[in-house]
Design goal:
By secondary structure, the chain is of the alpha/beta class.
Length: 319
């Protein structure tokens, strides 16, 4: 389990950013990485572009997939703006201290299965990082750049939605709605019950940077004392869609109700307002979705509150 502890100052310093480098890393990550596993959107993108991956991208691909435990933290830059530029992220990587890079490489061990780029980084230090940044830039330009404007717009809409939730219901409610596996507790703790985590981390007044991603299916975090804490989460696609496979599966009315609940957890009355239907009709939709396992319902006093379940999340964002 992962537990992230918030103080009052941390809640005030929650912020958002969109990182091109996050998507470069998530795009080439293999299925052994839990955070992109079963990402149908990522798999469709990869099948479409893998024939265009240049040979110069090999050092980055090898480094990302050298261990199923994760990628070196120095690959994940710290954006300085909400919509970061890849060039700025790569410049920040090249400016990293030698000790930080070597510390991250220590987890790979040694032997014939260690990719050549890891040995080069160990021997040549940060001077060899240029091969990694060149690989990232080349891969982005060849495979991701054509899709990046559309991805940026979608993630910008996600951030706007989360910001509205903060304004209307508070930061805790927003954190609680980032993913079905995340649970905000009134004690000031955000919990994620992922089996790959065994960590309790206190933010210590530094706040938390939230970064939505189009390639993730599970949250993942970058938590260390030497850098700003980051939580990456699967971004919502709130834009209107054309052909609607979900409507064909569960019906147009149920699909609208599921997407309305995905925007943020809500009561039956609030769901009725979003759908423009009567409360009894909204209740019927919610009951059907709950019986199908697509949502969960929690009673709070006289009201009930509907939230997206893991199955509902997969129906919406797993393709």
């Amino acid at each position: 389990m992962l537990e992230i502890g918030f103080g009052t100052a941390d809640l005030a310093r929650v912020r958002f950013a969109v990182s091109p480098m996050d998507h470069v890393l998530g795009g080439v990550a293999g299925a052994q990485h839990h955070c992109v596993r079963d990402s149908v959107g990522r798999e469709r993108w990869w099948r479409r572009v893998k024939g265009r991956v240049p040979q110069r991208a090999a050092p980055l691909v090898d480094l990302v997939n050298a261990s199923p435990l994760g990628v070196p933290m120095f690959l994940a830059a710290e954006p300085t703006t909400v919509l970061a530029a890849l060039a700025d992220e790569l410049d920040a990587m090249l400016a990293l201290p030698e000790a930080e890079v070597q510390q991250e490489l220590a987890c790979y061990g040694s032997g014939p299965r260690v990719p050549r780029i890891i040995e080069e980084l160990r021997d040549g230090g940060t001077r060899r990082l240029r091969r990694v940044t060149d690989a990232a830039w080349t891969l982005f330009r060849a495979c991701l750049a054509p899709d990046w404007p559309d991805i940026s717009r979608a993630l910008g809409a996600d951030i706007a939605h989360r910001s509205r939730t903060i304004a209307e219901e508070g930061t805790g409610a927003m954190l609680n709605g980032l993913h079905p596996g995340l649970n905000w507790r009134a004690t000031g703790t955000l919990r994620y019950a992922g089996p790959e985590w065994d960590l309790a981390f206190d933010l210590g007044g530094r706040g938390l940077e939230l970064r939505p991603s189009r390639f993730l299916t599970m949250p993942t975090a970058l938590l260390a004392d030497h850098r700003s804490p980051v939580l990456m989460y699967p971004g919502l696609d709130l834009r209107a869609r054309g052909a609607d496979g979900l409507a064909g599966l569960i019906g147009a009315a149920r699909a609208r109700a599921l997407r309305a609940i995905a925007e943020e957890p809500c009561t039956t009355g609030r769901l009725a307002e979003r759908l423009g239907v009567s409360p009894p009709t909204a209740s019927v939709h919610a009951s059907a979705l709950r019986e199908a396992g697509a949502i969960t319902t929690e009673r709070r006093g006289r009201q009930v509150r509907h939230s997206l379940s893991p199955l509902g999340h997969h129906l919406l964002y797993g393709g």
